[in-house]
Amino acid sequence: MLYPLKFKPILKQTIWGGDKLAYKSSDPAVKATIGESWEISGVQDNLSVVSEGPLAENSLEELIEVYMGDLVGDHIYEKFGIEFPLLIKYIDARDNLSIQVHPDDATAKERHNAYGKTEMWYLVETTPDARLIVGFNQDTDKATYLQALQHHTLPELLNIEKVKKGDSFFIPAGTVHAICKGCFIAEIQQTSDITYRIYDYDRRDKNGHTRELHTELATDVIDFSQQQHSIHYHHHENHTEELVNCPYFTTNYLKFDKEIEKDYIDLDSFVIYMCLEGSFTLVYHVDQTIKVTKGETVLIPAVLKNIFLLPEQEAELLEIYIQ
Q1: Catalytic residue at 197?
Q2: Which of 94, 111, 131, 197 is catalytic?
Q3: Is the CATH code 1.10.357.10 the one for domain 241-321?
Q4: I need a labelling partner for 281 at 20 to 30 A (CA). Which of 134, 175, 189, 213 fits?
Q5: Residue from 46, 120, 37, 39 nearest 83 by CA
């Protein structure tokens, strides 16, 4: 019988990683430089593995192969087969990440036989000086952009957002973007690991080498128009607030201090909860329970339609599914 699934985090050490994800590792050598925790992943060579319960040690792909639509939803299984369509991450940036862009589905299919990458960010924690780069600060064009790249002045064209905890941003494929130091982020994205790096602040490694840039590939996919990417929503307690509703995923925010009932009878999709603050008990199958604490992520199989959430004092979560 299917039940709410937790997975072993897939930890990525990076030169810009910090220590906010240290609690996810028991290795002292790893703890201080974890840039990303892949909470749920269907990326090949990075497949999530169940951490507890009767299905422990099975990979997400193996489970979809067996349970099909009961796990992910019938229409999702028909479209994606055994490939899980979303990649769910936490990102801890102690330093600035490179400025980059991702291709859309059509370009990714043509160039890499893969899906493109539309994504969103939710700011879980920030330092007082935290910033994000999202899109351009003016309508621009290819020639202006390439000239700025050549003269190392690209940051002057970019939209820099001062951010705080609770801010959220939608990043469609084609949007130039970068996570900057001081941001601890929950990221929801299409299952894709394709990134075109376009600017890295002329940084050099210990051997004096710069990192590879993908100027030509990137230029062809960039959206040069100025757009609004920040998401405006209300923090109404005990009420589910929609952040993003796009063809690739829907993400909602919920802060609650009393019992919440979730009825998914009309939803043909898995549901993911990312617990941002506090903890709660998830009740399913009438009397079966599982506890979810801050920093944990849980996958609710599509076959489970009636869920109750019981907070311990107060909890915050992101609710993610595909419509």
Answers
A1: yes
A2: 197
A3: no
A4: 189
A5: 46
